[in-house]
Amino acid sequence: MIILTGASGGIGTSILSGLSKIDKVIAIYNKNIPLNLDISDVDFVKVDLKDEKAIKNFTDKIKNNIAEITLVHSAALSRD
Q1: Is the distance from CB of 73 to CB of 7 less than 8 angstroms?
Q2: Beta-carbon contacts of residue 57 (< 8 Å; ≥ 6 apart)
Q3: pLDDT in tens, 6-29
Q4: I want to staple 75 with a disulfide (CB 3.0 to 4.6 A). Which of 5, 10, 28, 67 is the partner?
Q5: Which residues, at least 6 apart from 23, have a Cβ–Cβ distance to it below 8 Å?
Q6: Please, what's the b/e burial string for 38-48 (b: 16 or more CB within 10 A of its CB; e: otherwise)?
Q7: Which pLDDT value is given to residue 79?
Q8: Element housing 2 (H / E)
């Protein structure tokens, strides 16, 4: 299983298709779900990576269903 953070950003959307060819992907986004992506074996999950409770809730949901994880961290902070 691959967990991709920043799935709705430029890097995340660029590599998502290639990652899905390697393994099942959980694509984490915060504000905007990636649209117009017709990719199999990808689950999109909204998680605010600045919120410790949200991260714990996410990990609690998936921890019993997977044996190995590859984390691809492409999330970034943007300041307006």
Answers
A1: no
A2: none
A3: 998 889 988 998 999 999 999 999
A4: 5
A5: 1, 2, 41, 70
A6: ebeebebeebe
A7: 65
A8: strand 2-5
